[in-house]
Structures are given as C-alpha cells and as structure tokens.
What we know:
- This protein is 32% helix and 16% strand.
- By secondary structure, it is an alpha/beta fold.
- A 6-stranded mixed beta sheet has the order 3-2-4-5-1-8.
- The longest helix is centred in the first third of the chain and has 17 residues.
- The chain is globular.
Amino acid sequence: MKLYLSSYKLGDDIDGLRSLVGLLNASVAVISNARDSSKDEQRKAKSLEFDMSQMNSLGYSAEHIDLREYFAKPDQLVIDLAKFDMLWVTGGNAFILLKAMKQSGFDQVVEKLIKTNKIVYAGFSAALCVIGEDLDGTELVDDVNAIADGYNNETIWEGYGLIDFYPIVHYKSDHPESHLMDKELEYVISKGKKYKTLRDGETIIIDS
C-alpha cells in the first residue's frame, strides 16, 4: 500500500509525497465528505477550493469527487476512481466520512485499488482515523451524532484497518481541536491501543 498520512493539510514532506506518487502530472480525486455535516456552506466551499489549489500547486490535476453521488450506485465508485493516481481525503468529522465511504462502495476501492497499489491514499486528520482499526475514542473529539442529508443514522465504529495504530492528530498543535487530544490520548492508552501522535505538519509515509 502507498499511504501519505498528514496531521493537517499537506504536511511537511511534500517531496515524500511526490516520490510516493511517482508522477509529475498525477491525477487526484479530492474527497471532502468529512465536512458534510457542517452547515457553513461558504466555509466548506472555501476549504474545498483551497484543497484543490494545493493539489494544483504540486502540478497535479485535481477533480472533486462527492461520495454522496455514489450512494445509489456503489459499484460505480471503484470504476470511476480507478482513473486517478491518488486520492486526497480531507479532514472533518471521521464518523461522517466513514459513513460516506461505506454507503458509496469505498470498500471496493480499498480492496481493488489501495491494497493493490493501484492508487495512493493520501489525506489528513479524519482521513487517518477511518483507516485505523476503529473509531473508539474518536468520539472524544468528533461529534458521533453528526448528521447529514442522505446519510444512514447508524454509527459505524469499525475502520478499514490499513494501519495498525491509532492516529492522534493535531497533537500539541495550534489547532482548535488540539486541546482535546490529550484526553483522547489518555483514553487510548487506557485501552491498551497502539498509537502514534502527529503534530500538525508531521506526516507518516507507508510504502509496502
């Protein structure tokens, strides 16, 4: 698998990301569904615009992929994402993001594209949480009861298990949620979970 995991935004290892992708003009699918529960449409639009511009600044061609468009046709997602070289999954609410992935057919993307090294999985914050073993502890930071139009109400706790550690993002950082991370870390330790802390700017690259 090829994973680029950042605590916040692009992080501090852009050269590492470029090397992982291995293409100068890569095509990127930007997935921002973790923000779907927010009612601030203007802020969401600005954030997406920034995410797209960051990908373009790398020389990549970026396209926004809304997982909600695949809720009624989940078998199509893996077909459409297969044309991209990288996924860039943004932060937001991890519970909402995981629901969006499950409802849209992202399980097939994991099995057919990510685990087979056909596409790079990259992103920040919530993007890391959903590929761990589970979200147990994430409710201390993200609203587990967050809702969004078209989403199932049932909470999903089981992640994709692509990483064998619980990611503590925004740790000791200048981020609005940073003050909650100590409590999350304390909980994770109490549960005996393997974990890694990431300050904003820090990244983890997995190439296996």
